[in-house]
Design brief:
The protein is α+β, with helices and mostly antiparallel strands. The chain contains four helices and twelve strands; from the N terminus they run ααββββββββααββββ.
Length: about 230
């Protein structure tokens, strides 16, 4: 039952894996033998200049994926596509990053790449579990330590597994089961301590799987280079 039930999730996760084999790899770690300061050269920063992350007004964000009215009114909004929106703000040492699906678009398994100039690349993973790795300078990436979220958190993609089992016995198809049993979510809400990446500049990339209707897709932002975030 679980194998059939998760087939759509596996399909969406395969989109993540395929990025490394189709000419669109995740952000590279520093080349072996180079100084850490060459990790992200200025030439790889995204076109359009840095993004100034606004100071929030103090309204907290509950990282449940619901984008409750009022939570993000003080945030900067950036359109990533016709159906996906990025939101950014920080308040008292915490940075809030939201990836919201619009209309009938669902945000699936996703990864947030973060670094400071000259520092290592951290990959924060969100799916049914949360996990993190530091991207190595070369070779294969280490496995995630799921459940380890040092100085950050986000909403997992949760489902009512008891109800899923009942619908499976009724012969429902996997996609219908996922839609019927997923707890409400409009996207992913991250809360990350500023102290995790010290300094006034962060470099970020987003890789998010999306499901619009029955059609899976992918959002890469920026498509080349990094988004430079500035804090006051």
């Amino acid at each position: 039952m679980r194998k059939r039930f998760t087939s759509i999730l596996i399909m969406m996760m395969s989109v993540i894996s395929s990025r490394e084999g189709n000419g669109q790899p995740p952000p590279p770690p520093p080349p072996t033998g180079h100084a850490q300061s060459t990790l992200i050269p200025t030439s790889r920063l995204a076109a359009g200049g840095p993004v100034s992350v606004p100071d929030g007004s103090g309204v907290p964000v509950i990282t449940d994926g619901l984008f409750t009215p009022g939570e993000w009114d003080d945030a900067l909004r950036v359109s990533l596509s016709e159906t996906v929106e990025l939101r950014l703000k920080h308040f008292r040492g915490v940075v809030f990053i939201g990836i919201r699906g619009l209309g009938n678009t669902t945000i699936g398994p996703s990864e947030l790449f973060l670094a400071v100039p000259g520092g290592p690349v951290h990959k924060l993973h969100v799916s049914a579990q949360l996990g993190e790795i530091v991207v190595p300078p070369s070779g294969a990436e280490p496995p995630y330590r799921f459940g380890l979220t040092t100085d950050w958190y986000a909403n997992e993609q949760r489902r009512d597994m008891k109800e899923a089992g009942r619908l499976e016995k009724e012969g429902k198809d996997p996609l219908s089961i996922i839609r019927a049993t997923s707890y409400p979510s409009e996207g992913i809400e991250f809360a990350i301590r500023r102290s995790k990446f010290p300094g006034q500049r962060w470099l970020m990339r987003i890789g998010a799987s999306v499901l619009t209707g029955d059609k899976p897709g992918w959002i890469d932002h920026p498509k080349d280079g990094w988004l430079e975030l500035h804090f006051h």
